[in-house]
User: Fold these one by one.
Assistant:
Number 1:
Amino acid sequence: MSSNKARADSLSLLLFTLRSGKLMAINLLKVSEIIPCPPLTKLPESHPHVKGIATLRGASLSVIDLSRAIGERPLEDPNGGCLIVTDVSRSKQGLHVQAVSKIVHCLTTDIKPPPFGSGGSRAYITGVTSVDGTLVQVLDIEKVIHSIAPAQIEMAPTDLTMEDAEVLGNARILVVDDSQVALQQSVHTLRNLGLQCHTARSAKEAIDCLLDLQGTAQQINLIVSDIEMSEMDGYAFTRTLRETPDFAHLYVLLHTSLDSAMNSEKARLAGANGVLTKFSSPELTHCLIEAAKHVAAHGH
């Protein structure tokens, strides 16, 4: 086993199927429970991919018809199957699926980026891996949710103090995220603050960008990175930076669709300066100001 493999982060995936029987997966950390499909209340004005509302322990839960949402054939029994209840980006929703298969454990390095330029359901795939010789597609749950209920981006406060605006103006930021939706949200917040930034869709692409800009006027001094990425996740990316003399000092803010409290210790051990749950524009703005002050104080 290579040293890189030995240090790769492990990941648990919940495998499930839709009508086609192809195995799909979701990061187990994004799943709060699995329940039989309960009776649903239809809402007349709801999105066509929302089957209805379930009541779960007294709270309303929006149920997404996952087959329709990713362009697959409807389930054979529209009232059967089960719900995967997810908890991502500060909200819960139910995904109606045919059946849950099993939980498997793998390394983040075993999850490869999906083939590019593929339409249909593949547009909602964030990575692919192999389990017992069978191809498994990892679902981009954030993209599914965004396609049904686009996130309302709270406006970041633009009435910054002169001091905050000045310190932010010296930040040269790289945003790293394999989700196009999440990347756009972060870039939108930065633009509202009058900031430009560089972007990357993977840790490898981010490292290439850092190398390209090293020694130029645009040399990066602040990184905002997703955690849940294929091949090299945010933790492994941060560790790589800390072990690279030219990049060891970079300020790293890890941005996650999971509850950041769950990740704070892992983020600290990896060497990150901070961790934040997606997506709150005001909170991201606050973290960026703190990060820019840190960068200014340390002269990088």
Note: Confidence is low (pLDDT under 50) at residues 1-6.
Number 2:
Amino acid sequence: TSLPVAAALSCSFNDDALYKCGRIVKTEMEIFKADVWLAPAMNIMRDPRCGRNFEYYSEDPYITYRAAINMVIGVQDKTNIKVCLKHFACNNQENNRTHSNSVVGIRTLREIYLRGFEKVIKYAGPYALMTSYNLINGEHASSSHLLLNDILRNEFLFTGLVITDWISSGDKNNPRSINESAYASKNIKAGVNINMPGKKSDIKDIENALKSGFLTLGELKDNCSIILNKIEEVKH
């Protein structure tokens, strides 16, 4: 079913319509035996040139989380079908989005860019969350202990899976950017559970980090335990 894009759905201001769209997604995922929907996308529309704006709900945090809450509940209600919120956080441009640096004050970050994620986590219980490619104040979102541990886990009380966007770690640095790539070991250290889609260079990087002491075996076990617990949750 070709549902309206998120930007159009949010213009309805209709909670019931969004819930029903979520139920349609849930039903079709059951038919095709899919487990996790890589949506909804909740970034704030800051620039009309952002190539993913059709996936986002609004330039307003309230409209964004109100729409997303109903969509998430619609998909996950009374079923083992799950959602993955994305892109956490500040994915504001398309050009060089794997190395761009979003410079933002902490109040703006909390009141505009993180508010929607916070509310959906609190009221809808999403299963997973995907980090964004970009850096925030000079640090990759996927490698930010502040973002993934202090705020997401400890403050928002998120207990689900944290995964990266695809092919976000260990790549050669973009020649157009002064910022280095993210690395699997740094991501795990910060709180990422799964580096997607995973590759040999990620494994080597993690092994080297364990040998050097940058990453401890305890941190790796804690990380894996979250993955195993969330797998059991889907199975039951």
Note: Residues 90 and 113 are 6 Å apart (CA to CA).
Number 3:
Amino acid sequence: MLQGLRSSLKESIALIRSALQEQIFENINAAMPSAIEDAGETAYSWGAPRSEGGLFWATYKATVRRQGVYQGASGFRDFNQELFEPISRPLAAGWERAFQRCLPRLLNTFAKEAAKELKQFHETAKARAQERSANPAGIITLSSQILAHIRKIEALPGIVSERITEVQREASRCFTPVIRDEMDDAYVTCTNEYGPGSYARMKAAMLDHVENARHTMFSNAALTVKGVLDELCRRVMKVSFPYLV
């Protein structure tokens, strides 16, 4: 019985990993070239002439001083999120499909299959015990134990879904902090600029940094999120049947 349950669990985890790969990481990989391509233009737009929507010097300075995030008179700005926007837009639909549809369906299927296997084991064990005129108390104990396991399995999708909700929220918040860290040198350099011509030097430093960092920042963000979601799969296994892993 345990071998069958372990096999079902591993198959379900493989399907979950496949769903995450298809719905999330393939979307990230598809959108990443656009993010890399647009990064320079996005950075330029922050310091563009006012007629083109660029920021006032003071707003630019306040934003870089706060690692790219600032709420000013002209509204909220998050440079890190703006760099990530070419990925976040197409990713939203895949993220919703993965966590609102695919994973709950896979968990429900696993719970039904596992409960079915336990019920079959219960009926077989009960029949064999009766054939052998086994102690009725032992049959009752076995039945109660198996039924308790079945109840736990049937409740599993709800329990695991709560954990998945927590982890996927954590994962979704991992993108921009990585980009912020990748942008930190530029923010520090710009913050330290003072005196005549400082705005021009700030904008030049920002563009130079983005030109170099754009080739790695998005892939590093994706790797961080992948690590968080891999941990999700491990948690699903541990929560599902601690004695199977």
Note: The helical segments are 2-46, 57-65, 79-131, 136-172, 175-182, 184-191, 198-213, 217-240.
